[in-house]
Amino acid sequence: MYSVTELIADLDRLGVRPGETLLVQAALRSVGPVVDGAQGVVRALRGALGADGTLVVYTATPENSRTSSSYRAAVAGMTPAQLRRYHARMPAWDAAETPASPTMGRLAEEVRLLPGARRSGHPQTSFTAIGPRAEEITASHPWPSHLGEGSPAHRLYEAGARCLMIGVPVWCCTPLHLLEYWQPDREEQRYRCVVRTPDGRRSWRSFTGTRLHDEHFPAMGEVLAEGLADEIRSGPVGDARCHLMPIREAVDLADKWYRNRQI
């Protein structure tokens, strides 16, 4: 059973710096047993970052999108009547109340629930942050830009933030999707979701945004591991194999690789 103090020591050895802005994406089971579970891990992260540090997590809700892979899997084979009933049961997204998707991991939801945490206003790809830069990171999130210009992912890039991947590979860093917005031949698609209006009603909304892909991410991870070998810090946090990576440098390298790959 790992204590919060032991995890803070692991984070310090890995290179987490007090006062920095840190995006954390985690498979918490890989850490092993921790006193107070996910809440203990959150306390350790905040302890390593200190009072001047900002902790950021990805609190996305892909189930709310009628174009996501999770939605397509859920409705596959449904009749028109079944599909109508499914749409009627889809929970309307509310920034203050809607939990992060279970696919984001328990850590994301624990941070979302912290008093003082701030969440960006995107019904499908929200980020949540706590700390001095939380408002700056999450204040604006245009719906057409899920993970592109003007999103929290872009502000993490601009801020020189780093990404800590706990028990997951380097290619799981969500801001890597930024490179898809920078391609001259990027695809657009129509998105549709249901949200909760200020008066409590359900409302379906549509908007156009960049079509996002992830099939290239595993290969991109190999490029990052080799090209940023001197900048990625790797080591254990509890039982988990972890990687600490600068977001700007990772996105820039991945963008260069991706452009050359298209030729």
From TrEMBL:
Signal peptide range equals none
Q: Which GO terms describe its molecular function?
A: aminoglycoside 3-N-acetyltransferase activity
What species was this sequence derived from? Kitasatospora phosalacinea
Q: What is the name of this protein?
A: Aminoglycoside N(3)-acetyltransferase
Give the catalytic activity. a 2-deoxystreptamine antibiotic + acetyl-CoA = an N(3)-acetyl-2-deoxystreptamine antibiotic + CoA + H(+)
Name its GO BP terms in alphabetical order: response to antibiotic
Q: Look up the domain of life of the source.
A: Bacteria
Assigned protein family: Belongs to the antibiotic N-acetyltransferase family.
EC numbers on record: 2.3.1.-
InterPro entries noted in UniProt: Amioglycoside_AcTrfase, Antibiotic_NAT-like
Q: Which UniProt keywords apply?
A: Acyltransferase, Antibiotic resistance, Transferase
